[in-house]
Amino acid sequence: MKPSEVTTVGVVLAAGASSRMGKAKQLLEINGQPLVARMSALALEAGFEAVVVVTGARRGAVEAVLPDFVHVVHNPNWATGMGSSVHAGLSFALSLFPKLQYSGFMVTDQPYLTSGLLRKMLSQLKQSSAPGIAAYYNGGLGVPAVFRAGLFPELLALDGQKGAKPILHKHREALQLVPFPEGAFDLDFPDDWERFLREQEG
After folding, report:
1. How many CB atoms lie within 10 A of CB 32?
2. Where are the domains of the chain?
3. CA 93, CA 102: separation in Å to the nearest integer?
4. Which of 52, 65, 92, 142 registers the highest number of CB atoms within 10 A of its CB?
5. What is the pLDDT of residue 8?
């Protein structure tokens, strides 16, 4: 597909230092596939026409495991927080794909995310007039989330720690929601990863 024809992009936020995990969680493997590569593949399988991965800490190691179809942008301000990576990913996507209409955002440390859930979110948003759609878990909204172009200016204005959470909160009444209770489990600490592996074996 020509860049001028791309209207949907999945942005994988993979810039963090994983300081609590003690090693790059983007590189932890499920069935031999690093999480950052797995998430990129899920986005493509879900119907996003292109995938952008935002790197930061451990840039070289993360970029080395990415599949060929991925477009990579490095966020030099990754240490300031998730907001700067949202900005970096979306601004890069818009520079590549000028007709972009839908941008999905996902992180690498939700091991229970599926392409089916992402596909459902993208399809449901397209069939509605809502400005975006977000996963619902732990009583609140979070990633993955997909935004229509009308919210791009607010996403591009993000910086610092908060990521897209303030935008999700601000537009909560207008957004579509998709239950994703498994989204409450993410891989922050070594114990989380060990627990996940045990559950897979069970």
Report:
1. 7
2. 3-201
3. 11
4. 52
5. 98
Pairing of strands 71-74, 33-34: unpaired
Query: Which architecture characterizes domain 3-201 according to CATH?
Result: Alpha-Beta Complex (3.90)
CA distance 166 to 157: 11
d(CA 132, CA 117): 15
- Structure letter (DSSP) for residue 58: B
Each residue of 39-89: pLDDT tens digit? 999 999 999 999 999 999 999 999 999 999 999 999 999 999 999 999 999
Q: Measuring CA to CA, which residue among 196, 199, 200 is closest to residue 21?
A: 196
Q: Are 180 and 117 in contact (CB under 8 A)?
A: yes
Q: What is the pLDDT of residue 200?
A: 87
Which residue intervals of the chain are DSSP H helices? 35-45, 59-64, 82-96, 115-126, 152-156, 165-170, 190-201
Amino acid at 159: D
